[in-house]
Amino acid sequence: MKFCQRVAIFLGIAMCSLAQSTPVPVYAESFRQGSTRVIEERFEAKLTPQDPTYRERIKDSHWTDRYALSITPQGPEGDTEITSWQVKLVDLHYTMYDNVLLTSQDPSSDPKDALWRLNPSSFSQVPVAAKRIIRVDSFYVILQIKAYHFTPPDSPYLDSMTVAVEFTNTDPRTTAENSRK
User: Fold this and answer.
1) Are 144 and 163 contacting, i.e. CB atoms less than 8 angstroms apart?
2) How far is Cα 45 from Cα 108, in angstroms, rounded to an integer?
């Protein structure tokens, strides 16, 4: 077999394995279905045990504070270690709803109802690198774990996580499909 043929085969295998390692985005719709739109924005939250909580106000299309986004640490009860983070989005007009990122107000074991749980363990219901897309009212919340680190490396305890957060009024699944054409 010639060198060029070997290189071509190697590149083909590498491209296939790379394509397989990128998880498909996971999509869910909130139990909240309305007409509210938001001011589009994107940011990264860098979380550590020293700075474990992130909070951000999200404005609606009238430039009014409408939602409160929070990312908070989770861990074993009675322990100070962090094993995951969870994202909540509260509608400031309807604070009776604890988290509008949920697909149902009833408890569920459906992986799509766990998109707001940022758990990088191998037992997580959602792949770590998956882009999580949640439709709320007439906008979309996109969450993606960009980086995380366990200390020590073989433990379940996290010492950092970086999460990309985006709010958009355009369905990102449609945008991604159009950019591939």
Assistant:
1) yes
2) 27
Distance CA 17, CA 24 (A): 14
Give per-residue pLDDT as tens, 2-53. 433 433 333 343 343 344 466 789 999 999 999 999 999 999 999 999 999 9
Please state, in angstroms and rounded to a whole number, the distance separating the CA atoms of residues 76 and 68.
Answer: 25
Which pair of tokens denotes residue 87?
Answer: 């994202």
Question: Residue written as tokens 């909580």?
Answer: 53
29 contacts 134 by C-beta, under 8 angstroms: yes
118: which 2 tokens? Answer: 């940022």
Report domain extents, the chain: 25-180
The phi-psi region of residue 84 (left if phi > 0; otherwise alpha if psi is between -120 and 50; otherwise beta) is beta
SS3 15: helix
pLDDT digits (tens, 9 = 90+) for 70-82: 999 999 887 889 9
Sign of CA dihedral 103, 108, 110, 111: positive
Residues listed for the chain:
181
